């Protein structure tokens, strides 16, 4: 079998962070950076697209730039502390939701090749090798490293090309945030909405008429019908 599944990360394999959780960490970080907590939390939110596209550099550069945007001049020690706190937040987020690892192992046991295509800031690629996902995925495409954010076709194609498979043999599975489903479908990838308990509640999926699942455990039967096997 020569078929692959491209998975989204947040809201699909792990719960996404809540705004409350993120802002709380931002306010704590503001104290070590010596900046106004509300302005800094707002700047972190506003910089989401730039951070996901890697426009602010690595994590220390990002923390320094965000502090400077709200009037700060942080010391190297302050930036280092901010980096540690952001990494601690990311570590808490990168734990698989219940049942996810079992579902991934079942898919791999049936011959599926697994890849990750995620919009994320610099923390995720820094921590990826520490996670329980790393050994289960053949490759991972991080927007902050690639420089292209879903639904930009280059985000999906980076994985498709690396897998050396046609788009029709690569399913995309995600919770639909950032218009990622339409972006995948436009490239000819069989696309599935993961409408699970951890899906981003703000994802606009009301117009999606394609396949959907309520659990990753439902994927094997559905994908056997949707995804072409290049070996057949």
From TrEMBL:
Keywords: Hydrolase. One of its GO terms (molecular function) is hydrolase activity. InterPro entries: HAD-like_sf, HAD-SF_hydro_IA, HAD_sf, S-2-haloacid_dehalogenase. It comes from the Bacteria. Coiled coil: none annotated. It holds the Pfam family Hydrolase. The keyword Isomerase does not apply. The keyword Lipid metabolism does not apply. This is Haloacid dehalogenase. It comes from Actinocatenispora thailandica. The lineage of its organism: Bacteria, Bacillati, Actinomycetota, Actinomycetes, Micromonosporales.
């Amino acid at each position: 079998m020569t078929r692959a599944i491209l998975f989204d990360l947040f809201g699909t394999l792990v719960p996404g962070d809540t705004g409350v959780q993120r802002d709380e960490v931002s306010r704590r970080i503001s104290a070590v950076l010596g900046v106004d907590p509300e302005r800094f939390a707002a700047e972190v939110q506003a910089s989401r697209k730039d951070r996901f596209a890697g426009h602010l550099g690595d994590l220390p550069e990002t923390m320094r730039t965000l502090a400077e945007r709200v009037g700060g001049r942080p010391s190297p020690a302050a930036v280092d502390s901010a980096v540690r706190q952001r990494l601690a937040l990311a570590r808490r987020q990168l734990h698989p939701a219940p049942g996810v690892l079992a579902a991934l192992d079942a898919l791999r046991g049936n011959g599926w090749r697994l890849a990750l295509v995620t919009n994320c800031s610099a923390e995720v690629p820094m921590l990826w090798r520490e996670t329980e996902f790393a050994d289960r995925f053949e490759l991972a495409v991080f927007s902050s490293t690639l420089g292209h954010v879903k639904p930009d076709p280059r985000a999906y194609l980076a994985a498709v090309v690396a897998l050396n498979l046609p788009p029709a043999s690569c399913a995309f599975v995600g919770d639909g945030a950032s218009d990622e489903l339409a972006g995948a479908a436009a490239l000819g990838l069989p696309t599935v909405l993961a409408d699970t308990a951890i899906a981003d509640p703000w994802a606009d999926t009301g117009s999606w008429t394609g396949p959907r699942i309520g659990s990753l455990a439902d994927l094997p039967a559905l994908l056997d019908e949707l995804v072409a096997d290049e070996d057949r």
